[in-house]
Fold this sequence. Notes:
The protein is an alpha+beta fold. It has helices at residues 10-20, 27-38, 45-53, 57-66, 86-90, 93-104, 146-156; strands spanning 78-83, 117-122, 134-136, 139-141.
Amino acid sequence: MHSYAPAPTDEDLRALIDDHVGLEGPLLPILHAVQKAFGHIPGAAIPLIADALNITRAELHGVISFYHDFREAPAGRHVVKICRAEACQAMGGDVLAEETLKKLGLDWHGTTVNGAVTVEPVYCLGLCACGPAAMVDDRVVGRVDGARMDALLKEAGA
């Protein structure tokens, strides 16, 4: 279960940036630190990070949107990731993903109205022989069918 701090102040954000700006290649460590602290990359962080690293906001947005682990809005209390790799697709992962999103009324990266579950794609969980695979928070689950997904979603409060 995720629990994050309230909305950050500029001082909170500057402190995280300052802790990492001296590193070689500081952008990803800064983004990871901000997301770890606040559960997402808040809009208020964008100009501060861009200014500290002397990059454009567009460049920064490109990095955030490229890496699937960064989010620009808070996730639900639980994150359900469904494997999108070929082995899982061959075992029914596409249908599982479509049915799950339809059942919850979500698109990828969407969060249920009650804030309980965010559904995200992931590209290989390493359970290729046990597909389709999913991950609920930090727990990897293999051989996920519709009934098993329903149980996982119910357990997560969706």
